Amino acid sequence: MASNSNREFSSNSVSMRISGNLNSKRKAISSDGRDQMPPPPSRENLNSSSPSSANTQTVASNFVSNEGTPNEGTPSPTSLACASKKVRSEVWVHFVKLKDDQGNETGRAKCVYCSKDYLANSEQGTSGLWKHLRDTCKKFPNKKEFVEAYKSRDKMQKILNFQKASESEKSKLSCWQFDQQACRDALVKMIIKDELPFRFVEGEGFREFIQVSLPMFQIPSRYTIARDCYYLFVQEKKKLHALLTSQCQRVSLTTDTWTSIQNVSYLCLTAHFIDSGWNLHNRILNFCVVKSHKGINIGNAIDFCMDEWGLNKVMCITVDNASSNDTAVQQLKKKLTKKNAFVLGGEAFHMRCFAHILQLVVKDGLESAQYSIRRIRDVVKYVRGSPQRLEMFKKCCESANIKSKASLQLDCPTRWNSTYLMLESAVVYQKAFDKLEDVDSKFFGEFGNDMPSEVDWTKARNLTRFLKRFYDVTCKISGSLYSTSNLYFPEIIRVLKDLQAFQSSNDLNLAEMGRMMREKFDKYWGSIQKMNVMLFIAVVLDPRYKMDYLAAKYKSFYSENDANDLVTRVTNSLRALMDEYKGNEQVGMGGVINPSNDVEDMVEDEELDDYFIEREKEQSLVSKGELDRYVGELPEKYTHDFDLLNWWKVNAVRYPILSKVAKDVLAIQSSTVASESAFSTGGRTLDRFRSSLTPTTAKVLICCQDWLRSSSKPIQLEETIEDLESLESEITQDPEIVKSVMPRTRVDC
Q: How far is CA 56 from the centre of its chain?
């Protein structure tokens, strides 16, 4: 069916092809493998290229449109071929079938350009006619382009198949044919996206797979793959630069530093922005080597990267609370002040990392429970120490009738979230640990009286409930591809509410932890002067909250005067922002700075109509009242799935200046997680097996992976024990696999 449909060219399709780009190179093949050539030129070219013979004039006079009316340059195949038989090949646009005196076909066809005739019956086919046009005919116009199109034609027949662009999309019918370059490009992207070594293409298994699945593909060497990665980096960098230039007003930055296994210090700089379609982006701009973690070196590296990308307008930069970062930010402010790159005079330029502050707050609270945490950590470490201990522990779980399949996790003492995960997994197995004491004599000998007591397990349960709230908050604000800045203040209020509840708890241990954590909280977020004003402005720009929510929540934890001061500060800052954006917009549109001065200048222009003067005054008043109108309207109904960016996209027409402010404010990140996640990639890319990679190659691979990947999910290189156990239980349902693979017991032997 596909072959027949490819050969059947209707008169409309032929006419459309002829009336298109007649001099372009074309690729067309018939389903039976015969070459399909481009259509002839227009009538003017035909008349100028061929003699004014009767035959040629006859052909030219038969050029008609699809509707049957005369139309220059558009031949109709029905007028050129036999009326009794429908022609399918495009060659009949260039040839005329000859007839005898009775009107019967003679089996020959004549070229409309040089009048030479050839055999052209159904047995001969059209290959000879195409060859004449390509090689013999000297009067065929645009022959050079015609021959080039023939040489570059596709000789392979396409294959119909169903393909999915992604897992979420439905299959689509498409035509596929082998393309060496396309396969090579896809291979390079796979190497980068999936963090595969260059030598992967030389692996025996990969070559066997290609030999079976796509034997015509010529596998490039690892050197070629590495070179292609560099070329792809250059192409993607140009695309990102064009995106930043065309669709970005200002960017917000996050940065962090890391030391690799090679003992080389790296800095990652990530840009966050919202494009013209109101989509939130985060893109790694640089993954470069710095001499050290000193503030001056970090500041110089960031400044150099901003110059490289041409970033002259910056909203905020988010860093953790290291003293070196404070030095770097101060150095950047001095340089960027000269470029007029700030808003609000740089007052809101420095944003402290929300997740890092939260870590410091929780860390202080855990100090009072360190003794119980250490005991539980020791027994978990013991069980995970060998396969024999783990197997014995599983038997204890079965004996204690514990249904949980969660694996025991060992924490990193410097990261409280890993401590939470360890306690969460351990408290489920308390009875199993108690039974292990009776079964394993070494277990008691290892710890003696230092094993976790009932008091320790009770503390662990309380800590788990206590830390879960902070863990959930951290996870929520750490999603760099979906977290907008309006999320942070409500989470801060939620943390403050929990701390107050812990302080008033009847449990003395929880009350003490709450007190210590509140002291650390107040150090960074205890007053409006200590918090970045952009966090408050972002709340106001959420139509579900606005100014009333901000004032009410702050008043519930602080005094009414403090709440009024906050409203005044936010209102003044937001008005100042709108004035800056309004001025920038007018400068960009026509070099105008102050609308009120413009009106005065217009009055002096005698030729200016009074109507336009009044309209400018009205527009000026409307823009001044834009903020008041937004704040005065009723808030939107609160829903968890509210799409904030889509709301602003729809209402940008109503609030033209305020929407520009919202686009930049909502893109601010109050966490450096986006930059820290690059170091997870860096750690895998620069592991001990690939430590020979140069810093430049590491930069190419990490940046390019970030630009290419469409998913925000991190790469999961290691499968969890739960997944593996589930997979094994499913596979081992096959008796043949059980017989051949599963180990036999001594009794079976």
A: 59
Q: How far is CA 264 from CA 259, 288, 686, 742, in A?
A: 5, 10, 10, 45
Q: How many other β-carbons are positioned within 10 Å of the β-carbon of residue 106? A: 13
620: CB partners within 8 A, 6+ apart: 595, 596, 599
| Structure tokens that stand for 15 in this block | 């006419």
Burial of residue 474 (number of CB atoms within 10 Å: 0-12, 13-18, 19+): buried
- Hey, is 238 helix, strand or coil? helix
Nearest to 586 by CA among 576, 596, 571: 596
For 408, which DSSP code?
Answer: P
Question: Which residues lie closer than 8 Å to 506 by C-beta, 6 or more apart?
Answer: none
**3-class state of residue 546 by DSSP:** helix
Distance of CA 617 to the CA centre of its chain: 44
Q: Are 34 and 125 within 8 A, CB to CB?
A: yes
Those residues with Cβ within 8 angstroms of residue 324's Cβ, 6 or more apart along the chain or in another chain: 293, 294, 295, 298
The C-alpha atoms of residue 575 and residue 661 are separated, in whole angstroms, by 10
Q: How many CB atoms lie within 10 A of CB 383?
A: 22
Distances in Å between the Cα of 133 and the Cα atoms of 77, 147, 434 are 17, 9, 92
Single out the residue of 666, 696, 702 nearest to residue 684, CA to CA: 702
With beta carbons less than 8 A apart as the criterion, state whether 707 and 278 touch. no
Three-state DSSP at 478 gives coil
Cα dihedral: 413, 417, 419, 420 (round 10) = 170
CB 627 within 8 A of CB 578: yes
Looking at residue 727, its amino acid is L
State the pairing for strand pair 117-119/159-163.
Answer: unpaired
pLDDT attached to residue 679: 60
Strand pairing report for 251-259 and 314-319: parallel
318 strand-pairing partners:
254, 351
Q: What letter would DSSP give residue 70?
A: B
- For residue range 521-573, list pLDDT tens digits in order: 888 888 888 888 999 999 999 999 999 998 998 888 888 888 899 999 999 99
The pLDDT of residue 481 is 54
Which backbone phi and psi does 510 adopt, to 5 degrees?
-65, -40
DSSP H or E stretch at residue 265: strand 265-274
Beta strands in 354-488 (DSSP E): none
Q: Look up tokens 């829903």; give the residue.
A: 639
- The torsion of the CA quartet 45, 48, 50, 55, rounded to 10 degrees, works out to 80
Residue 159 phi, psi (nearest 5) = -115, 135
Give 329-341 as a DSSP string.
HHHHHHHHHHTT-
Cα–Cα distance between 171 and 531 in angstroms, integer? Answer: 50
CA distances from 730 to 211, 308, 405, 407, 740 (A): 31, 53, 15, 19, 16
Q: What is the pLDDT of residues 121-177, one digit of tens each?
A: 877 788 888 888 888 888 888 788 877 777 666 556 677 777 665 565 677 777 778
What is the DSSP code string of 633-651?
SPPPPP-TT--HHHHHHHH
Segments of 525-586 assigned E as strands: none
- What is the pTM (predicted TM-score) of this model? 0.70
- What dihedral do alpha carbons 342, 348, 353, 354 form, nearest 10°? -140
Task: Count CB atoms within 10 A of the CB of residue 602.
Answer: 15
Q: Where are the beta strands (DSSP E) in 42-125?
A: 95-99, 105-111, 117-119
